[in-house]
Design a protein that fits this description.
single chain; 607 residues; alpha+beta; Heat Shock Protein 90; Ribosomal Protein S5, domain 2; Rossmann fold; 9-stranded mixed beta sheet; 5-stranded mixed beta sheet; 36% helix; 19% strand
Amino acid sequence: MQKGAIRVQTENIFPIIKKFLYSDHEIFIRELVSNAVDATQKLKTLASAGEFKGELGELEIRVAIDKEKKTLTISDRGVGMTAQEVDKYINQVAFSGAEEFLDKYKGQGDGTNIIGHFGLGFYSSFMVSNKVEIISQSYQDAPAVRWECDGSPEYTLEETTRAAGRGTDIVMYINEESEEFLDEGRVRGMLEKFCRFLPVPIMFEDRQVNNTHPAWTRKPSELTDEDYKNFYRELYPFGEPPLFWIHLNVDYPFNLTGILYFPKITKSFEIQKDKINLYSNQVFVTDQVNDIVPEFLMLLHGVIDSPDIPLNVSRSYLQGDPNVKKINGYITRKVADKLDEMFRADRKAFEEKWEFISLFVKYGMMTDDKFLDKANKFHLFQDVNGATFFTLEEYRTAATALQTNKEGKLIILYATAPVQQDAYIQAAQAKGYVVVKLDTLVDAAFINQAEQKWENVQFTRVDADIADNLIDPAEKTDSVLLADQETKLKSLFEEQVKPAHIKVEIKGLSAEAQPVIVTRPEFMRRMKDMAAVGGAGMSWYANMPDEINMTVNGNHPIYQDILAQGDAGKQEKLVKNLADLALLSQGLLTGADLTAFINRSVELLKQ
């Protein structure tokens, strides 16, 4: 029997491993199963290179719990280890056998899929164990060996027998604090989380827990639409079917495969991030992919797999690296190309999906100028009636003649709540204006960005002013009222509309126009909208009073009747009701004011 002290490259490495190396203790199962996969892949590589001529047999990894002995065992039928290899790879912490093997067999079959790169994965077993045994028999003509260590630097190494022959057993004697890892449900959950797509069959409780050939590892030409949908159901069993997907497959200047799915996301935004999983050679790494996937695509679902993404020793966090930036740019380009291809191939189908994909497109245009350049061709405006879609250039063609202001800017008229803003929309459409719908949570920010990035474009909400003033302020038009009637009417409204931030003005509009029109100037209303959805540094806008213009249409015939009214009390009530109706149309009449309006309306009807 050989006894000795483990030769570590850092003093007191066991406490470091147990407490700090891995932030999440369940990671140990990923590391040990990954090592077993490595050993299996090594054997397949040696067989394909002619260096192993024996029978491969059933290559699978088994995970077993023994509650009486309080052990968790991971067994493989891979290359195994000789006593010398155990001494070299186990007793010298942080010397990686995988690194050495990769260098020797680079480019040969499964040799490029060796997962371990750091030589510390095995020692994660001590996070949950009082004692760990290795029983291993090499594929070479050498006796089986047994290694044992209780978490101190002292170990024993001796010859033994292994009934299963070639391969390795890692036997963990689970410590008292970690007895949760002797529960079948807990272990099954970890295997399904970390190992569900590993390339070697993994057996637990006599059942295979993984899919060894997930869709992203196959060529797009081999897959049908149904294959992609089935894989989506495998990833998200309770999710709605995806709209479409993008298969990533690149091997230069970095290796990357994966499938990204576009889920159905509407303006209600029942959003769940962290739905993209990062894998390295089919080993789950993390669902925190912020650095790899552009921010505007974080709402996508799916899988990304790359051996070229650098990871720290725990494989849990991405490190800064040029490859990460390149991959980010590649994904952006692939998504833009896919959307452009869909738009050009079948515009009608693209328009039908616009409600669900507009969020991604607008967010991307705001945050990524390269995406913006491509998206300008397929970004769409939908008119408020829902029947027509315009690209920016198509909107220019349709609206330039009537909607270009004195500064030469195209005024894009929009509604955020077409039903509520119907009266304003009708007034604008009566003048021949084209009004589009911008009703998602990102639109307030989107129009601000678009005004900066698109040349000679300005957005104005359809209720920002009376229809005559939406493009350019109109000359003051006289009403049919006499000067003293105008003064009296303005005084009546100002007495009934108390808040100082409501500005009352008498104008001579069409007799068919509304008697009172309440508008909210574009700039302040837009700032308040952005503040309401958490605009950075804009919270003070949210606390400012609404800026409201109340335009009284002096040409409406109702005012002749009101001014002729002999009952001053009724006159005031009628004026107050007209003002409240206009405020109600903008959603600005609430609470006690709304109740008073309803009661007053009933009272006036009785008279």
